[in-house]
């Protein structure tokens, strides 16, 4: 018998599982989080809300069934603002309720570099 890889979770299913409080592993589809993550990397996302994340965290937001994984730049009483590490500008403000998870990434020099670079960039 040939072992087959499990197909990746669909974004809508991953979002539903995160909202239920379950951790999910999902493949990264884009390059906006380079150099920390590259397309195809598998990310472990744990459930989180805007109240529990802080600037510098890598968060997952639910955009009507699509997951966006970017770094949290700042949050206000009603919105959150994110940006991909490889992106020149911030994403438009989103409602706090769109934050559904935080990416678990092991501390490393690469992680520290990416975090500082992202947060100190204007």
DSSP helix count?
Answer: 2
Assign the CATH class: Mainly Beta
Q: Stretches where pLDDT falls below 50 for ≥5 residues?
A: none
Helix content: 10-25%
- Give the total of beta strands: 7
Structural class: alpha+beta
| Terminal-residue CA separation | 53 Å
Radius of gyration: 14 Å
Identify the CATH homologous superfamily. Answer: Umud Fragment, subunit A
- Listing every helix as H and every strand as E from the N terminus to the C terminus, the arrangement reads HEEEEEEEH
CATH architecture: Ribbon
Number of domains: 1
How much beta, percentage-wise? 25-35%
Shape: globular
- Strand line-up across the major sheet: 1-2-7-3-4-5-6
Classify the fold: give the CATH topology.
Answer: Umud Fragment, subunit A
Compute the average pLDDT: 89
Biggest sheet descriptor: 7 strands, antiparallel
């Amino acid at each position: 018998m040939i072992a087959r890889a499990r197909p990746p979770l669909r974004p809508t299913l991953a979002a539903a599982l995160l909202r239920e409080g379950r951790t999910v592993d999902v493949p990264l589809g884009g390059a906006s989080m380079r150099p920390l993550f590259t397309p195809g990397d598998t990310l472990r996302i744990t459930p989180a809300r805007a109240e529990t994340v802080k600037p510098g965290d890598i968060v997952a937001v639910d955009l009507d069934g699509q997951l966006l994984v970017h770094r949290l730049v700042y949050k206000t009483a009603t919105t959150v603002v994110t940006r991909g590490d490889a992106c020149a500008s911030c994403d438009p403000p989103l409602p706090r309720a769109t934050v559904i998870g935080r990416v678990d990434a092991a501390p490393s020099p690469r992680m520290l570099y990416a975090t500082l670079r992202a947060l100190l960039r204007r």
